[in-house]
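TICKET: design request
STATUS: open
ATTACHED STRUCTURE:
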C-alpha cells in the first residue's frame, strides 16, 4: 500500500470523500514528509503547522453534504498569490510588511471546493528571474527552475499532491520539467488572476503542478469554473500530433533531443500520427514580441513599487524594468498587434492537429542556484495564451528529469488534457520515492 504522502491527488480525494482517510491524518502525513525532506529542498516560504492542523480539522468536522470535490486536499500556493490567513511576500523584502486583505480569487475557489492552503511556496522575486532559496529535489546542486520553483519542488518531493503557480514566459512548464512533474498552464484567463501579483496582464496565467495529468485536471477544474474538465476526456482515436523538435531562437541539447525522439517513437508505435513540422516564418519573432509585451507591461505595472522601494529590488529585476520602460506606447501597441496576428497564424498552422509537441526546456536543470534556466522553449505558448502541459519523459546523463511539452489552441484545454493523458499512459516515468 502506498504511503499517504505518495497518494495521487485523485486517489487522496477519493479516500477523503469516502471517509477512508481523515483530513487531519492526511495533513499529518504530509507535514511529516516536509519535516523529513525539506531541509535539503527549501520549497516553502511560509508553512505554519498550526494553520495546517486547524484547516484540516475544520474540514474533517464538515458534514458530507457540505463537502466539495477537493474536500481535505492541501495545496501549495505560490507566494505571489494573496492569502488572508498566511503572509504573502512575493519573494522580495519590498513586501515584508504587506498584508493581503482577502484571498485571491483562485484561493477562494480552492477553499469553496473543499481544499485549503497548505502553505506558501517559494517564488523568484516578483515571479521574474532572481531566484529564491529552493533547490531541485533530484539534485540539490541544481536549480528547480523558476519562477514557480517551490511549487514544482514541493510536488516532486511528495510534500503536497498539488500546487498553484503562474507563468508569464516559462514559469510553470520549465520548473515542472526540471523537477519531473506535470505542469499545466491553462488557456490565458481560464483561472482568474485577481488577487495575484500582476507582471504582464497580456501574458500572466495561473496553473497547476501535480504528479499526473488526471490530477492536473482534477485540481484545475474547480478553479476554472467549468472551463476545464475535472477528468481528461477519452480520445475517440489515437491523436494526430505535430512535432517541432527545436525552436530557431534556442539550441536544444542532445539529451533533450534524444528524449523527445524516444517519446515520439513510443507514441508512434502506440498508434499516434506524429508529423514533423517547421515553425512558420511569421512566428520567428516570438521571443522579441513576447519580451516587449512582458517587460513593457511590467514596467508600467510595477512603477509604483519602484517609486517606493527601488533599492530593495534586485539588479536583475531593475534592469529588466528599465528595458521595459524603453518600450514606449507605440512599440507596445505594435507588439500587441503582432501578437494578435501570430495567434491567427498559429491557429491556421495547427488546425489539422490535436496538439503540438515541443521540448519543455533546452535541457535538464542547469547546475547552480544563481539562475533558473532558459524559459524560451515555453515562449510560444505563453505569447499565444495557449494551453500547455509538460510530461516527464526521460532523464539526462546526470539523472535529472527531462520534459516534453504539449500545446493546443487557445480554449482547447479539454482536448489538450485528453491528448496528454493518452501520451502519459504510453510514456512511463518514475518520480522520487
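STATUS: resolved
RESOLUTION: sequence designed for all positions
ATTACHED SEQUENCE:
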Amino acid at each position: 500500500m502506498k504511503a499517504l504522502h505518495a497518494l495521487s491527488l485523485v486517489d487522496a480525494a477519493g479516500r477523503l470523500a469516502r471517509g477512508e482517510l481523515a483530513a487531519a491524518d492526511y495533513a499529518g502525513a504530509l507535514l511529516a514528509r516536509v519535516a523529513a525532506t525539506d531541509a535539503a529542498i527549501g520549497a516553502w516560504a511560509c508553512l505554519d503547522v498550526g494553520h495546517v492542523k486547524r484547516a484540516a480539522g475544520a474540514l474533517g468536522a464538515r458534514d458530507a453534504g457540505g463537502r466539495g470535490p477537493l474536500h481535505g486536499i492541501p495545496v501549495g500556493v505560490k507566494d505571489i498569490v494573496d492569502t488572508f490567513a498566511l503572509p504573502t511576500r512575493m519573494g522580495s523584502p519590498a513586501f515584508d510588511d504587506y498584508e493581503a486583505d482577502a484571498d485571491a480569487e483562485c484561493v477562494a475557489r480552492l477553499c469553496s471546493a473543499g481544499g485549503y492552503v497548505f502553505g506558501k511556496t517559494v517564488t523568484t522575486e516578483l515571479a521574474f528571474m532572481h531566484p529564491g532559496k529552493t533547490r531541485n529535489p533530484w539534485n540539490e546542486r541544481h536549480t528547480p527552475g523558476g519562477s514557480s520553483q517551490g511549487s514544482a519542488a514541493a510536488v516532486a518531493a511528495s510534500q503536497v499532491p498539488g500546487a498553484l503557480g503562474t507563468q508569464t514566459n516559462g514559469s510553470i512548464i520549465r520548473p515542472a520539467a526540471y523537477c519531473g512533474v506535470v505542469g499545466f498552464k491553462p488557456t490565458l484567463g481560464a483561472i482568474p488572476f485577481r488577487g495575484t501579483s500582476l507582471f504582464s496582464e497580456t501574458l500572466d496565467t495561473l496553473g497547476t503542478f501535480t504528479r499526473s495529468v488526471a490530477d492536473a485536471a482534477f485540481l484545475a477544474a474547480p478553479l476554472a469554473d467549468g472551463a476545464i474538465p475535472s477528468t481528461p476526456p477519452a480520445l475517440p482515436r489515437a491523436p494526430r500530433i505535430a512535432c517541432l523538435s527545436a525552436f530557431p531562437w534556442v539550441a536544444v541539447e542532445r539529451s533533450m533531443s534524444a528524449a523527445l525522439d524516444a517519446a515520439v517513437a513510443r507514441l508512434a508505435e502506440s498508434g499516434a500520427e506524429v508529423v514533423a513540422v517547421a515553425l512558420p516564418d511569421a512566428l520567428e519573432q516570438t521571443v522579441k514580441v513576447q519580451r516587449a509585451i512582458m517587460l513593457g507591461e511590467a514596467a508600467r505595472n510595477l512603477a509604483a513599487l519602484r517609486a517606493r522601494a527601488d533599492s530593495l529590488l534586485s539588479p536583475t529585476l531593475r534592469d529588466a524594468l528599465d528595458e521595459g520602460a524603453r518600450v514606449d506606447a507605440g512599440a507596445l501597441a505594435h507588439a500587441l498587434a503582432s501578437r494578435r496576428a501570430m495567434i491567427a497564424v498559429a491557429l491556421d498552422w495547427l488546425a489539422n492537429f490535436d496538439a503540438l509537441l515541443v521540448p519543455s526546456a533546452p535541457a535538464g536543470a542547469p547546475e547552480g542556484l544563481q539562475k533558473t534556466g532558459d524559459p524560451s522553449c515555453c515562449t510560444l505558448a505563453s505569447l499565444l495564451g495557449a494551453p500547455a502541459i509538460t510530461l516527464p519523459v526521460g532523464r539526462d546523463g546526470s539523472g535529472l528529469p527531462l520534459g516534453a511539452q504539449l500545446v493546443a489552441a487557445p480554449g482547447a484545454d479539454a482536448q489538450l488534457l485528453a491528448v496528454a493523458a493518452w501520451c502519459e499512459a504510453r510514456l512511463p516515468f518514475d518520480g522520487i520515492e
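CLOSING REMARK: The mean pLDDT is 97. The radius of gyration is 20 Å.
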